[in-house]
Amino acid sequence: MLKSLFKTPVSVFAKSNFVLPDELYPEERQYVQNASSGRRSEFATGRHCARMALQNLGIPWAPIQRRSNGAPEWPNGFIGSISHCENFCVSAVTTTDRALSIGIDVEINSVLPACEAELICTEQEIYFLKSQSGRSFHEWVNLSFSAKESFFKCYFPLTELFFTFHDARVSFSSDESGHSGDFSITVHTIGGPKIRESTFLGRWHIDSERVYTGVTCMPVETHLMSLKA
User: What is the pTM (predicted TM-score) of this model?
Assistant: First the structure.
């Protein structure tokens, strides 16, 4: 199911029980040396999932350090993404000839306070989500949050630009099952200045415990073709 979140073949590894921080390489421990034990375990599990996903593509275990912008430093020729929520962690990895970047996000399927919906969604989005069928409004808000998070994880390593939740507008469509579907993210402003409007495509899935989203940034030629189609 998690592989289907992407528009290109990926290697995915997920783990429902967190590993001990002792599994981290010395080069990685520096990033969480002052963090709580829970955060160290969370970080270690993310690196574990990333190494397992890379191993499935033939890459031996090695430290995964951080770039200066905080994103993981993937091996040459590979790109990936890591996400975690309560008692669950996942990493997706692919090769740079298949995608420019990918982003994955997982969130607990819980009811968010009404005030948070306004922080995550624009007025237009809230109106659209309330008219959507098949899922509750709160589930659509959760999916909106996750979709924008996965987009940020995909977009930031390419541009190092930050955006607010209201800078990106998301719209959803559902498969026949009602448990999965597509979404599009339209970006209007990033970091304040106006940029040319761009659209990015993703997939979503939801079950009783969690919501999952993935975004793929394809090579320019493929991306432009999908926008014209």
Answer: 0.88
- Are 201 and 173 a contacting pair, CB within 8 Å? no
| Complete domains list, the chain, with CATH | 2-99 (3.90.470.20), 104-228 (3.90.470)
DSSP per-residue codes, 46-99: HHHHHHHHHHTTTPPP----B-TTSSB-PPTTEEEEEEEETTEEEEEEEETTT-
Length of the chain: 229
Q: Identify the residue whose tokens are 């008219």.
A: 131
pLDDT for 42 equals 93
Decide if 202 contacts 214 (C-beta within 8 A): yes
213 vs 62: CA distance, rounded Å: 27
Would you state the structure tokens that stand for residue 7, as one six-digit string? Answer: 């528009």
C-beta of residue 100 within 8 angstroms of C-beta of residue 219:
yes
Bridge partners, residue 186, by sequence: 169, 199
CB atoms within 10 A of CB 199: 13
148 and 166 Cβ atoms separated by less than 8 Å: no
Low-confidence ranges of the chain (pLDDT < 70): 188-198, 219-229
